[in-house]
Amino acid sequence: EPMSITPLNTSVPVLDQEDAGTIVMGVDPDDKEILQTEELLSLGKIRLALEHCEKAVKAEPSAGAYSLRAKCRLLQNQYPLALEDCARAITLEPENPFAYAVRGEVNDCLRQREKAEADYRKALQLMPLPETYPELIMVATCHLGLGEVDKAIEFLSECIAKKPDSVVGYQYRALAFQKQDKNDLAAKDREKQKQIIESQLARLSKIPK
After folding, report:
1. What is the DSSP letter of 129?
2. 75-95 burial by CB neighbour count: b if 16+ within 10 A, else e?
3. What are the phi and psi torsion angles at 164 (to 5°)?
4. How many percent of the chain have pLDDT more than 70?
5. Distance between CA atoms of 39 and 90, rounded to whole angstroms?
6. Exposure string for 141-156, b = 16+ CB within 10 A, e = fewer
7. Disulfide check for 89: which of 59, 66, 72, 190 has CB 3.0–4.6 Å away?
């Protein structure tokens, strides 16, 4: 049975990482507000992430910025606002797969399974051959939302191979292992995720403000 797959932290830390890019399509990968939004999300700082994302949307209301704000709002249980942002993103860029993937998560949380599955499948249709880290994460998320756990684990393992310090990779894979009742593997991934977050918080605390 498929499950709602939105955990507390669903973004990717991007500072000082090779080939990090951003987790959404249609944004400037050098946009400071976008980068700060994503790192704050990865550390569970959702309110602060939303504040930075608001600035990004105001500066450049792109499909990617709206999709990322939808993710922030989703994590704050602001489902109607998240759906509005997804709609704006799709209007601006009808073939942006991330917008459909986020909308699928929102519909999952609203228990609209048919709509969620349609969105996940649309996102996968628009991204048939994922190659980059952001694309792999998105595709894995959609497979997990569809209950295709083996496929999700396959893509998540590839994500982790590309970025061994991926918070979201370990987090989603832990959810997938839990779905398969592989609790020992899930616990290992959660412990690894915790270690990465602690390391990143320690590093950030040393950065002069």
Report:
1. S
2. beebbebbbebbebbbebbee
3. -60, -15
4. 79
5. 24
6. bbbbbbebbebbbbbb
7. 66
Q: How far is the C-alpha of 18 from the C-alpha of 172, rounded, in Å?
A: 21
**Which of 16-20, 73-77, 94-98, 110-114 shows the lowest mean pLDDT across its residues?**
16-20
Helices (H) and strands (E) in the chain, counts: 10, 0
Distance CA 122, CA 30 (A): 28
Neighbours of 131 (CB within 10 A): 10
The pTM score is 0.80
d(CA 56, CA 23): 15
Interval 102-123: pLDDT, tens = 999 999 999 999 999 999 999 9
3-state secondary structure (DSSP) of residue 5: coil
Residue 173 is which amino acid? R
Residue 78 near residue 58, CB atoms below 8 Å: no
Which ranges of 43-164 does DSSP label H, i.e. alpha helix?
46-59, 63-75, 79-92, 97-109, 113-126, 133-145, 149-162
Name the packing angle between helices 149-162 and 167-179 (round to 10°).
160
Pair of tokens at residue 198? 């602690």
pLDDT per position as a tens digit, 181-197: 999 999 999 999 999 98
Cα 97 from Cα 119, distance rounded (Å): 9
Round to whole Å and give the CA distance between 117 and 55: 31
